[in-house]
Specification:
Helix content is 38%, strand content 13%. With 336 residues, it is an alpha/beta fold. The strands form 2 sheets. An 8-stranded parallel beta barrel has the order 3-4-5-6-7-8-9-10, surrounded by 6 helices. A two-stranded antiparallel ribbon has the order 1-2.
C-alpha cells in the first residue's frame, strides 16, 4: 500500500480507501461485510469511509463492529453528516448546528470510537447559514471529537467560501469527496484547480463508475446475477445511467488496454483516478474479499502518458465533463 497526505495537513491516508456505501447494512450480511473489512486491512488499507445516512445508520454500526480489536491509532475513520437519518424528522437532515452536533455524537457511538479522523459535510446545505455549519465543525474540532474537516460534492465557490470561514475559525478544510472516474470528470475544470489553490485534496468515490468500468456489463447481454445493477436496495438506481449501449461498448474497448498494462479493468479504473495529483485516495467498495484485492492492485501504479491518451480517445464520446453537475448533486431544499 502507498500513502498520501490529505490536503495541506500532516495526515497520511492510504491511496485506497475502503467504503461501505450501498453494501454494509444493506446489500451484505454482517459476516460478509466484516470479511471484506478484514481483507482491506490485510491488503494494507488503513482508511475507512462511511456516512450516517448509509443504510440509515446501520453501515456505521457494521463498520464499527468490524474494526473492533484493531489499533485505533493505525486507522483513519471517515464519516459524514447531512442526509436524513433516524425517523427522518424535520431536524434529522441538513447542516444545522443541532443536526451536526447530534449526528457526531451518534456516529461516535456507532463507530465505537472516541474521535472521527475526518468528519465531512455530505452535501452543501442551502437552507443553513454557512457560518453556522462551520462554527459547529470548529466546536467539534476543539472538543476533540473530530480531528479534521472535509466536505463532499461542493462547488469551487462553496469550497472557497468554506475554506475562508474555516480559517477564520481556526481550523482547515482539507478535503472534498466528489464522484470521479474516467467516465465522470466534472471536477476537472473548476473544483480541482480551486482545491489545489486552497490546499484541499479529493477523496473520490465511484472510481469504477458503479462497476461499469470493470467491463462486466456487456451490451446486449443479461445483467450479471448478484451485481449492483440487479440490486433493489439502491444499487440499481445508481448504476442505471451508465447502462447505455454507447457507454458499455466504449468500456469494452478498454479491455485490451488493461491487459497490456497487466491490470484488471477495475484496477485500471482505480489507477486512472490516482494519476491526478489532487486525488489523495480512491474509495472502493466490495461485496466479496477478492474484489478488495483486485482493486488494491492499483496502489502505486503509474500509467504511462500513451495509455492515458488511449483511454481518453476510447471514452471521449461518453465522458461527462459539465462542471454544473457538481452543483446539481446538492438539493436546494431539505428532503424532509
Amino acid at each position: 500500500m502507498h500513502f498520501r497526505y490529505l490536503g495541506n495537513s500532516g495526515l497520511k491516508i492510504s491511496e485506497i480507501t475502503y467504503g461501505n456505501w450501498l453494501t454494509h447494512g444493506s446489500q451484505l450480511e454482517n459476516e460478509q461485510a466484516t470479511a471484506c473489512v478484514h481483507a482491506a486491512l490485510d491488503a494494507g488499507i488503513s482508511t475507512f469511509d462511511t456516512a450516517d445516512v448509509y443504510a440509515n445508520t446501520k453501515a456505521e454500526t457494521v463498520l464499527g463492529e468490524a474494526l473492533q480489536g484493531q489499533r485505533r491509532e493505525s486507522l483513519e475513520i471517515f464519516t459524514k453528516v447531512f442526509g436524513p437519518t433516524g425517523p427522518k424528522g424535520h431536524n434529522d437532515v441538513g447542516l444545522s448546528r443541532k443536526h451536526i452536533m447530534e449526528s457526531a455524537t451518534a456516529s461516535l457511538r456507532r463507530l465505537q470510537t472516541d474521535y472521527i479522523d475526518l468528519y465531512q459535510a455530505h452535501r452543501y446545505d442551502y437552507e443553513t447559514p454557512l457560518e453556522e455549519t462551520m462554527q459547529a465543525f470548529a466546536d467539534l474540532v476543539r472538543q476533540g471529537k473530530v480531528l479534521y474537516v472535509g466536505v463532499s460534492e461542493w462547488t469551487a465557490q462553496q469550497l472557497r467560501d468554506g475554506a475562508a470561514l474555516a480559517k477564520d475559525l481556526g481550523f482547515q478544510l482539507i478535503s472534498n469527496q466528489p464522484q470521479y472516474s474516467a467516465l465522470w470528470r466534472v471536477i476537472e475544470a473548476d473544483v480541482v484547480p480551486t482545491s489545489r489553490e486552497l490546499g484541499i485534496s479529493q477523496v473520490v468515490w465511484s472510481p469504477i463508475a458503479q462497476g461499469v468500468l470493470t467491463g462486466k456489463y456487456v451490451p446486449g447481454q443479461a445483467l450479471p446475477e448478484g451485481s449492483r445493477a440487479t440490486d433493489d436496495k439502491g444499487g440499481a438506481d445508481m448504476i442505471s445511467r451508465w447502462l447505455r449501449d454507447d457507454v458499455l461498448e466504449r468500456v469494452q474497448q478498454l479491455k485490451p488496454l488493461a491487459a497490456d498494462a497487466g491490470l484488471s479493468m477495475a484496477a485500471l479504473a482505480v489507477a486512472w483516478v490516482l494519476q491526478n495529483d489532487n486525488v489523495a485516495t480512491a474509495i472502493i467498495g466490495a461485496s466479496r474479499p477478492e474484489q478488495v484485492h483486485d482493486n488494491v492492485a492499483a496502489a502505486g501504479v503509474t500509467l504511462p502518458a500513451e495509455l492515458l491518451s488511449k483511454i481518453d480517445e476510447v471514452l471521449d464520446p461518453v465522458i461527462e465533463r459539465d462542471p454544473a453537475r457538481t452543483e446539481d448533486s446538492s438539493p436546494k431544499t431539505r428532503e424532509v
